[in-house]
User: Fold this.
Amino acid sequence: MDKIDAIVVGGGLAGLSAAYRLAGAGKQVILLERGDAPGSKNVTGGRIYMSPVRKYLPEIVDSAPFERRVVKELITVLDESSGLQFEYGNEKWKKEPYMSHTVLRAKFDSWFADQAAAKGAFIIPKKKVDDLLWEDGHVAGIRSGSEEIGAHVVIAADGALSFLAQKAGLRQPHKPENFAVAMKEIYQLDEKTIEERFGLGPDEGAAGLFMGSITRGMFGGGFLYTNRDTLSLGLVVGIDALSRRKGATTAPDLMEEFTKRPEVQRWIRGGELKEYSAHLISEAGIGTVPKLYTGGMLVSGDAAGFALNLGLTVRGMEFAIASGVMAADTAIEALEQNDLSEGSLSRYEKKLRESFVLQDMETFRHSKEVLDRQRFFTVYPRFMCELFDELFTIGDGPKESLYKTAKRVAKKHVLNMETVRDLMAARKV
Amino acid sequence: MDILVLIKQVPDPEALVEIGSEGKDLNIEPKFAINLFDEYAIEEALKIREAHGGKVKAITLGSAKAIEALRTAIAMGADEAMLIEDEGFAAGDGYNTALVLSRALEKEMFDIVLCGRQAIDADRGEVPQMIAQFLGLPHVGVVVKLDIADGKTVAESAFEGAKEVIEVALPAVFTAQKGLNEPRVPLITGVMKAMKVQIPKLTVEDLGLTRDMAGPGGSKTKILQYLPPKKRPAVQFIEGEPAHAAAEAVRILTEVERVI
Amino acid sequence: MDKVLVFVEIKGDGPRKVSLELLCEAARFAQNGRFSVEAVCIGRLPDAARDKLLSYTEKLVHFTDPELAVYSPEGYARALAGYAREGGAKMVIAGATGIGRDFLPRVAVLLETGIASDVTGANWLNEPMTFVRPMFGGKVFAEVVFSTSPVILTVRPNSFAMGEAQEKGGEYIEKTAGISPDTIHTKVVRVEEASRDTVDLTEADLIVAGGRGLKAAENFNLIEELAGAIGATVGATRSVVDAKWREQADQIGKSGKTVSPKLYIGAGISGAIHHIMGMDTSKVVLAINRDPNAIIFNYANYGIVGDLFEVLPAMTQELKKRKEG
Ligand SMILES: Cc1cc2nc3c(=O)[nH]c(=O)nc-3n(C[C@H](O)[C@H](O)[C@H](O)COP(=O)(O)OP(=O)(O)OC[C@H]3O[C@@H](n4cnc5c(N)ncnc54)[C@H](O)[C@@H]3O)c2cc1C
Ligand SMILES: Cc1cc2nc3c(=O)[nH]c(=O)nc-3n(C[C@H](O)[C@H](O)[C@H](O)COP(=O)(O)OP(=O)(O)OC[C@H]3O[C@@H](n4cnc5c(N)ncnc54)[C@H](O)[C@@H]3O)c2cc1C
Ligand SMILES: Nc1ncnc2c1ncn2[C@@H]1O[C@H](COP(=O)(O)O)[C@@H](O)[C@H]1O
Assistant:
């Protein structure tokens, strides 16, 4: 069979990074994406941290069409009927190098695809890869519809449900408890309104987190990011938790309730709903990371399970970019040595271990177990809300001292054996 | 059979179109596609070539970006492509577009010209007929079937309710309508070939025209301003049980709106 | 006086409705004495059609060359352009029907002028005259002016109001265009008229359209019965046509027909933008859908949230009751 150098499957950040890098090194590479265009099927809350990835793709990171640089964090804790919000800003974040940016994937990915194409990669949308081709126990290409295309190396960057990693026997079939479902809406609002409403300067953005009763005690939380002239609003909930509810609550119900909360309405009011999407997030941490390579194939990004869902924030884009680049670098070396064996490709894992990718995954190894304790999403938010409720409410009786109030409310909600256990567990996070 | 296919790159059917400042221009979301009806034209050309031999050449008048449409045509299987690069003429009226394209066609050898029924940007449906007139060729419009056999070319044209079966002498121009065929999806290998191919470019000067002909002084018609569609008042829901709502609807249509 | 030619099209025994609409509109704008209007008919002209036309125009010119007996774009374009040139016409107007849109662009080239296709509105008395036509499937409209003469237009059916027929008939003139057979390179082998005797969708005043909500081809009888009760033409969405429940000729929308009726009733249609593009210039829209959030309600004057299997028969019933009562 005629073979090209490399095939990348999936036009998300992992795939695009790999294709960009391979083409930059003069390798013949095609990237196949099943969606209408790279980025068309990708869902991201919308915040990317710069420093972990700058070193891998400086020219991309520094000229990408990001939305706004984040200078402000808004944290909102919600009870059934009350909310507590605090804001954290840091002057440092307003200066270069910026810490993080909000991003809209449809725009960023299609720009990134143009950059990769300019380097000589063939970016081919509307092509779903259906199977792997094998030769002497090595992956030797792909099949898409009626076409079989041979390649010396295949990079699977096909997202959280990676079916290629499964086909290659690198990964166990998926389990629901390892996934969260995320819903996201995009609201259009003009630039000036966004800046005034959030108290931002031009190009400045805010990142909001919501926790508490919005997930009805289930693992998860809400997010809100300011883009140039849109807002990204979303909610993440564990599928497992959701399915244990036996269908009484559906994810879209939760999303609807969430968007109706006054604490959310105040931000999105007057915005026109432009887009709705839902996506899966792999969130089990390093415990479920599959084997990352086999002869003729490497796995990167969400396909490799490289995403951290910390309940409130999801980090995946940096992992996708860095692992895509490292997969490409490994492939380039292997192509140059004409050795695409499993042994040769094992350098990929070594690179990952030396980088933040596997190190961060390791650090947060136990976060899932800890965060899965329902109390994080029910009892503690309720405690905080009630505490403030007591503080701010003036009834007809005499007001207790602050200390007394705190102790009484705490006793009711959090001072018990279970919370002690939670705290012990949380030390691991 | 040598077949020329005229294709136009247009905003994607899903692209947002908004009217710019003071109605003087349009802000169109930069998502592009080959005009829907031109895809049927390409497919038909490929089918004719497969049955009768010859070659298929795709031609477009457009901006530098329009080369993407030509690459798609090659990915689908066209043998050659040619870009006439001129934004002024491409944005002009139907007459100017047809003038440029007919000049380009005068330099080509062909038996058949296939076009789309209408470009879904300006929704004019004029250019192919105008080209046919410039070149003194016959045309058959809104074609849903094309048969070439025993030296005869028979086209089926779907004019509104009626279907006309028309025999035509070649060379001739045809405009493709939905129903003519199912356009093929390019193969991966086709796309790879298309990305590599060198596509020749012409300018309007190469065709003996001058750029100012596309300017305000040169075009036959021009757009003064863009207007938003009339907004319908908010929907009025007719409430009640189905039988009641139905009766009420009939009452409104006959007595209030007086349309039936 | 500026001469205006209105190309009139014959279908069956009579002129097409859009031709009469244009004659009425031309008579209105000619009232100030600046314009003189002539109707031009090419080819077959049954007596009934001639008589009817003569009650709508002061002058009817009829081209009777045998070569023009059946429609051909080459022949018709030559005849109409030749006559326009000969009489120094300032404007040539035709309905934006299949035929009108097919050959008027050729007339424009023959007269070295531009064309505005599928016009939906006009300011005849402006200086210069301006015309409004939809673009992008009706997402925006363009106001167009001509910098050359004559002005060539095709006008969308139902854009201008019909007027009353006149008492006294106009002048009737027969002419030949001198078309030689070898200028026409197409030959009509066969015409398959649609089996139905209802008005074509593009010209219909009343339309009842159905979508996938009807569930099966046979359920379209609910649509047909309601359409029958009010004398409407049946339309369909692309999903329905792709599923082969209805013919391609029934499809309304971006890749089908553009309709502009006085009343459009849509049942079991979600209101995808591609469909809306084909019907948004309808005057009154009634949508029936069981989903209160269906997009079609954003484009409707009236809405019924309910099961079409109950609502449609009830409407048909009510209409029958009214007719009898
Ligand atoms: C709601 C939500 C919020 C998030 N918020 C953040 C955030 O704020 N910050 C952050 O860093 N991360 C965030 N993430 C995570 C981040 O989006 C992902 O980790 C990242 O997009 C992974 O990139 P990827 O390239 O590996 O996969 P993807 O972006 O999922 O791309 C995979 C691509 O492969 C294609 N594909 C799949 N199968 C095939 C096939 N068989 N053939 C061809 N193509 C195929 C898909 O269409 C897709 O385009 C969030 C995720 C979600 C869902
Ligand atoms: C390039 C392109 C061109 C296209 N061109 C066209 C075109 O020209 N014309 C066109 O129509 N489409 C066109 N489409 C397709 C279009 O996007 C939609 O897919 C299509 O119009 C949907 O048809 P529908 O409304 O019948 O079906 P659906 O979208 O499936 O809607 C069915 C509706 O029926 C309702 N319903 C179901 N049961 C009942 C009941 N018992 N009572 C009441 N309501 C019920 C449902 O709530 C739903 O809203 C095009 C698409 C593309 C991509
Ligand atoms: N700029 C162009 N380049 C190539 N073909 C064109 C161009 N404009 C129109 N056409 C052809 O003419 C058909 C009808 O276009 P229009 O008359 O603009 O609606 C299209 O479907 C194309 O086949």
Observations:
- The longest strand of chain A covers residues 272-282.
